[in-house]
Structure formats: structure tokens, C-alpha cells
Design a protein that fits this description.
single chain; alpha/beta; 6-stranded parallel β-sheet; 10 strands; about 40% helix
Length: about 350
């Protein structure tokens, strides 16, 4: 059985490219259409990757076709990376530990990897190879976080978005901010906004219960999802992070709302993939649109405080890779014992 990973990330693809291969992909489609024995899809704002185990070689193009949002996507010109065997193991361990993130040392990716693993295992797509691989990845990530200072000063993508807002406005205390979405990324974003003194904070989400829960936790107010676009007539900053498959805001929809804004710029920070805001919005007078790729230079500035910790983290990962190779060599092919798989919904200790 061969372990391998195929994917795109912010390293080799811009947000427009990444969103062409995210949003509609499903692990069962990868299993069914590609002939993988096991498969797991990890899709975040910065990457879309398939981790798989297969008896036969599966071409990268075949995996890419399974990830494409539409069957008509032309694959020519897209450069997917591919890691095999030990290189695949090392790559996953670095991803789970936050070493491959745009914001080096961020911890959000570990939670996303755990959710992806649970989804694949519940669906029956992750068997003993991916089970062992991901449990070891979680252990490696935990050790990196507890034995190094790689997370010191680390920030999430949402926090970087707030840094950008502060660079634009300086003092955020008098800004009116609307956050669209109430997931984990949005929660980190609103908490970062509160820490910078934002008092007029509004939250809107397709699920009103989630919006109410988040708003209550940080003393914000909720906006009915169907009415959030009208908020653009008075807010200063819009930060979006939803799981919508299509843009929620376009030039055609926004232009009439902005007619009464006189000499008041509107800054939009879109950290969703696929994007929540159509690129043509940036052409409107007084509107300044930033997407996830725009945050990269800000994220790189925060790396300096943690750069010296990377070597220690890489050493820990190398030790885990070596131990996992020995596990494979000892015979992961032997019949699986019932005790090797934790019950559904439970992750092994130390993960």
C-alpha cells in the first residue's frame, strides 16, 4: 500500500486557482473515481489536499480532476504538488504542526486536520493506514507545540486580517465592523477585533443561532443574514469568512447600497475560499478589497519572532517520521486488531 498526498496551497497557487479546486470536492468521489483504497480531503482557506493510500499508482491528474469544482476545469497550467511515502508523512506532520502555514506556528490548522480526519473516518474513507498516519501527525503537532515556542506570538488568519485593518485605520475603536460568518475563523477574528478596542461590532451568519452564540460571548450584536448587505451603507470594515460556494457580494449588488456614502471608504477583507466577494467589487469608487493572498506579506512579518524555533520543530518532526517509517517496516500490513481503531467520535490519547 502506497501513501501519498496531492494538493495545492498558497505556496504554489493563488486564491483564484485554489477556489477552482475547493468547495465541491468530496472524499467519496476521490475514492470512487480515483481508485484509492483510503482517502482524506483537507480543505482550508490556504490549501486543498488529498491524503490517500492505494495499492496501485494513481496519477496526479486523476486526483486533480476529482478535486475540480466543475468537470470543465482545464488542468493544463496547474501545478499540483505530490509527496510519496516518507515525504508525504513529513509533509502532513509539518502541516499539522503549523510549519507549512501562511502564519507559521498558527494552531487553527490542527483543528481543521482533526475535523477532516473525523469526517473521513466516519464516512469509512480512512482505514488503518490513514488512521495511523493522522494519529501520529496529531502527536507530532502536540509535541511541537509543547516543546518549542513556535506558537509564541502566533496569530490566526483572522488576526492577520485585523492587523491589516489596523494598518489602514490606525485606531479601530471608532470603526464600525461587520463580520460575516460565525465559524472558528470568524470567532478568532472577532476576538482579535475586541482586543483592539472595537466597540461597534456586528455579526451575521446563515445560522442565526451560531451568530447569537458568538455575539453573546463578545457583547456584539447580530444582523439578520438576509439584511447584512444593507449594513455596507454605514460600516467601515467588512470581514467575510463563510463557506458559501458562490460570491455573496458583487459589484451589481453593492453599487446601489454605496450611493449615500460620501467620502467614506469601505474596506473589505475577504478571508474565505471560495471567495465571498466578487473581484469586480474592487473597481467601485471608495471600496478597497483584500483577499486571503493579500494577507501573506503581513503574516511573513510575524515570522521573525518564531524563526529560531523552526529548527527545533523540524527535529521533532524528523524523529516522528523515522518512528512512523519503522512502524510501517514492522508490518502495518498485518491483520488489524479491533483495539487499533478507537470508537467513532473518539481520538486516541495524545492527539
Amino acid at each position: 500500500m502506497n501513501l501519498f498526498c496531492v494538493g495545492l496551497s498558497y505556496h504554489n497557487a493563488d486564491v483564484e486557482t485554489r477556489e477552482s479546486f475547493a468547495g465541491h470536492a468530496e472524499t467519496d468521489r476521490v475514492l470512487r473515481d480515483c481508485g484509492c483504497n483510503e482517502a482524506l480531503l483537507l480543505s482550508t482557506c490556504n490549501r486543498v489536499e488529498v491524503y490517500a493510500a492505494a495499492e496501485n499508482f494513481i496519477p496526479t491528474e486523476q486526483i486533480a480532476r476529482c478535486l475540480a469544482r466543475t468537470r470543465t476545469v482545464e488542468l493544463d497550467g496547474y501545478k499540483f504538488y505530490r509527496y510519496e511515502a516518507a515525504d508525504c508523512v513529513r509533509h502532513l506532520f509539518r502541516v499539522a504542526s503549523g510549519l507549512d502555514s501562511m502564519v507559521v506556528g498558527e494552531t487553527e490548522i490542527l483543528g481543521q486536520a482533526k475535523k477532516a480526519y473525523e469526517a473521513a473516518r466516519t464516512a469509512g474513507a480512512a482505514g488503518r493506514y490513514l488512521h495511523r498516519l493522522f494519529q501520529r501527525a496529531f502527536r507530532a503537532a502536540k509535541q511541537v507545540r509543547s516543546h518549542t515556542e513556535i506558537t509564541r506570538g502566533a496569530v490566526s488568519v483572522g488576526s492577520v486580517a485585523v492587523d491589516l485593518a489596523q494598518k489602514i485605520f490606525g485606531d479601530l475603536r471608532n470603526c464600525k465592523v461587520l463580520v460575516l460568518g460565525a465559524g472558528e475563523t470568524s470567532e478568532r477574528t472577532v476576538r482579535a477585533l475586541v482586543s483592539r478596542g472595537v466597540a461597534d461590532l456586528r455579526i451575521s451568519n446563515r445560522s442565526p443561532e451560531r451568530a447569537e452564540t458568538l455575539a453573546h460571548a463578545i457583547a456584539a450584536r447580530t444582523i439578520v443574514f438576509e439584511q447584512w448587505p444593507q449594513q455596507c451603507a454605514e460600516i467601515d470594515i467588512l470581514i467575510t469568512s463563510t463557506s458559501s460556494d458562490v460570491p455573496l457580494l458583487s459589484q451589481e449588488k453593492l453599487a446601489p447600497i454605496l450611493r449615500d456614502r460620501i467620502d467614506r471608504p469601505l474596506f473589505i477583507i475577504d478571508i474565505a475560499v471560495p471567495r465571498d466577494v466578487a473581484p469586480d467589487v474592487n473597481a467601485l469608487d471608495g471600496v478597497y478589497l483584500y483577499d486571503i493572498d493579500s494577507l501573506q506579506s503581513i503574516a511573513e512579518q510575524s515570522l521573525a519572532t518564531r524563526r529560531e524555533q523552526i529548527a527545533a520543530a523540524e527535529q521533532i518532526i524528523s524523529e516522528h517520521v523515522a518512528e512512523f517509517d519503522k512502524l510501517i517496516a514492522r508490518g502495518l500490513n498485518r491483520p488489524t486488531q479491533a483495539s487499533e481503531h478507537p470508537p467513532v467520535g473518539i481520538v486516541e490519547q495524545g492527539s
